[in-house]
Design a protein that fits this description.
heterodimer; A: 223 residues; mainly alpha; 11 helices; elongated; B: 83 residues; alpha+beta; 5 strands
Chain lengths: 223, 83
């Protein structure tokens, strides 16, 4: 089940990016709702496998503390946007498990390689459009697959931040697909499809502009 | 202008690495607020076990959970108003 399958979550996402008052209200709502999730995660003993010291900007810690009270969507994303550049500078030891996404039918997507290919600068295609095409390409567990791609992209960029553009860093800063969609202002998956198709139409028209101009001139005649 | 601070990160037996974002002492119990290092929106609260560096104790009851969460919110209420 994804966040979009839940009616309350869907309504919540639709409310993102509206007035500050609504944001504040939604934060309180989220806090109440997510207290249950937080409670469940906080139950049960856990083993500590490894301890490590790490240097982080103080502002990140402060913002994470603030973030705990508003666990979902816009608030967290806004915090991340504010501190994104700093995190890339210091989180180069962040890693994502190197594995492919396995399913019951035994068919795997190598999402690590896919993430690298999405970020490859071998063509000029817009990154958002690449991601949308990827979204359309997945046949099953689409959200989970996209989430894994985002995690891998995050790691790739964190390991070599200087090699990527600011735009790439912004997109890949989101921890998962849903955060990306929310931050981009898509209210749900239907909205995502509708708007991306509109954008791609504009993009395609732009790509073919020389051809279209020639066609128009030919229609005018005189050549 | 060195605004960096050294923090602890813990890799738990679920394979995920968590940043120790905050800690609160309530009636001699120390509670840690842990944020997933790769997804800051994923977090949980665990309790230190005295003289045990290999394990963290989970929250046992709703009452305990609410007490810790309220203490956390009270501690950070000024910060939250900044939004």
């Amino acid at each position: 089940m994804t966040i979009y399958d839940d009616y309350e979550s869907k309504k919540m996402l639709e409310s993102i990016n509206r007035s500050n008052f609504q944001k504040k209200y939604m934060q309180n709502f989220n806090l109440e709702k997510n207290k249950e999730v937080l409670y469940e995660k906080s139950r049960g003993n856990v083993k500590i496998e490894k301890r490590k010291k790490k240097k982080l900007p103080c502002v990140i810690i402060i913002l994470m503390v603030a973030g705990i009270t508003a666990t979902v969507s816009s608030h967290i994303i806004n915090l991340k946007n504010d501190i994104g550049a700093s995190i890339y500078a210091i989180s180069n030891d962040t890693t994502v498990d190197d594995h492919t996404f396995k399913t019951n039918d035994g068919f795997d997507y190598d999402n690590k390689s896919i993430a690298a290919s999405v970020l490859a600068s071998d063509n000029q295609e817009n990154l958002d459009i690449k991601l949308y095409n990827l979204y359309l390409d997945y046949n099953y567990q689409v959200i989970e697959q996209m989430n894994e791609v985002f995690a891998h992209m995050h790691t790739i960029i964190s390991n070599n931040p200087d090699a990527f553009t600011t735009e790439q860093k912004k997109v890949c800063f989101y921890p998962d697909f849903q955060s990306y969609l929310s931050a981009r202002g898509f209210s749900d998956l239907e909205d995502y499809k509708k708007k991306m198709n509109e954008i791609i139409n504009i993009y395609n028209n732009y790509q073919n502009i020389d051809e279209k101009l020639t066609e128009e001139f030919n229609n005018i005649g005189g050549r | 202008m060195d605004n960096f601070t050294e923090i602890d990160t813990l890799t738990l037996n679920n394979g995920k690495s968590y940043i120790v974002t905050d800690q609160i002492v309530i009636e001699n119990d120390t509670y840690l607020f842990l944020n997933n290092e790769n997804d800051y929106s994923d977090f949980c609260i665990k309790k230190l076990i005295p003289n045990n560096n290999e394990e963290l104790q989970g929250i046992e009851t709703k009452e305990e959970f609410n007490r810790v969460l309220n203490a956390f919110l009270e501690k950070n209420k000024d910060l939250l108003k900044e939004e």
